[in-house]
Each structure stands twice: as C-alpha cells, then as structure tokens.
What does this fold into?
Amino acid sequence: MRMGKDECTPLLRLDDLQYKGLELWQYPSLYCFTSDAVLLANLAKVKKGDVVADFGTGSGVIAVLVAAKTNAGKIYALEKQKIMCDLAKKNAEHNRLGDKIEVVEGDIADACKLLGKESVNVVVCNPPYFRKGSGAEREREEIALSRHESSCDLKGIIKSASDVLKWGGAFYIVHKVDRMAEAIGYMQACALEVKNITLVYPKADRAADVFIAEAKKHGSSGMKLDVLVVYEADGTMTPRAKKLYCKE
It folds into this structure.
C-alpha cells in the first residue's frame, strides 16, 4: 500500500515486520530501516516496567519491536526530524502501541534535558554510521541525517546515553566494525562498561560487517565476545539469524 498527500509529500509504503501482525509505514524515497535495527531490537534485554529510550528512532521500528516484544513500562522515541517524528507516531498508533511509546522531538545531544538525568533503564541506538562530512553528499537533508553524523556524533551519542541512564542501566548500540575501538573508548570514558560484543558476519567466510555492543553504567569489568553468522554458504539464513531477524 502506498499513499501521499501531494507532490511535495513523499509516498508512504506499508511493510510487514513479520512478527504478530506488526506493520510499519516508511518513506522509500528517504530512508528505510535495515536489518541492523531489527537485530538491535531483538538483542536488547528489557525487563518488566523498564523505561527505555530509543535514540534517533526514525520510523520507530526499534521502539515498535521493543514495545511489542517486551514488558517495557515506557519507551521514549527520540527523533530530531519532524517528518520522522510524525511517522514514528503514526507507526505507534497503527500498531496500537501509542500507550507505551511516546515520541519526543529533539536532538540526541539534548536527551538529558528532554528526558531527565538518570531517568531511564535502557538506551538503544542505531545511529548514522558515517562521520560528518564523509562520503557522498545526499540530495535530501533527511537522507543525509540518517546516514551521516550531524550535531551529535558518536562521542556525543554515548555521552547522552550515559547521562540519561540510571546506575546499572544498559546501553545497546549497533555500528560498523571499523568504528568499534572508537565506540568502546567513548563508552569507557563515560562510565559505560562494555559487557558483551556481538560480531555480525554476513557469511562465515566474510569479514564481520557490524557489531552490537551491550554496556552497563558503572558495571563491573569483564566482557564476552559473541558471533552471529547471518547466512549459510548456500544463501539461506542460519537458524539463529532467522530467530533474531523475526524470520520464523
């Protein structure tokens, strides 16, 4: 299904999230969520009653999946772009999750002011992967902001996550492997002790593409390393990947 109000409004597409009837409206001409967001949502550990912050929610896919699959008490979906805030609200309401998801318009850099210092139990973030000014320029601002760091870079994202997390709270982030050392360094500097790293390999014979980090605020030292291979040699999904990507 596709819809658009006029020539200036991007067309919307309704996609099946393949989990208990969940659906998501997206703007194909702007930026659609990737499987990285789904993986992050499924690896985040959320306890009953937890307050969750989804940094840079975009269309709201992570917030929707976490709200539907956990017993979170409240999810704040923080997003800078108004067009995406409106879309995230639409998706929360479309999936009857408006009572659990509150979309907050604002910059991640201002998360502490918007949400409150040490106010949440879990922060999840699927940030722009590329540094500001790197790569090709995008035609539309919405696309550029979804792929390239803007006013809040990786260091700022991690600092804001630490600021809003309660003592013992958990931070989950997905990012490119070539920025893993940088991310770990920033987390350690912000009292976020990395507890688990999951390296995601497209296939067993290829290099890892992205990683998922789990860190605890003021956590004890000690980290585990995990590996996820997405596809078998014949191109079919591995059993674990099927489960994590909601394919079974």
